[in-house]
Amino acid sequence: MDHDKDVRIINGFVGRLCERTLACNSIKLRFAGKKEYIWIDPPWTLHGLSGCVADSSEYPGATPEFEVWCVCLNPLDRVRLTSVEYSKGRLVLGFSNDYQLIVPPSLGEVAEDDFYHHWYASE
Fold it and tell me: For residue 18, which of 12, 29, 43, 99 is within the disulfide window of CB 3.0 to 4.6 Å?
């Protein structure tokens, strides 16, 4: 799997507003006015200026705590994507509110012929 195409697509989203949607502990970042998005499966972490504020491994499952956990991800809702860094399998998305969504490498977790390695972009 080569993420070069995905990174090119994501670079095209820089400067645009996005909204987040959750499916369990997977994140979909949708871009305003379009059907374009970034899909991220675990593992991932969300960091603010004070450090990690949410971690995909803390997903509480389908429980009342899920709504509380979702609030931690509100910084990804209606925010502008400002930067994209991709190096050695690690993706870092920066946002206008000084939050970063960090997706670590996971090539050891999936087979090379899999559709994606836990994240991809669609235009």
Answer: 29
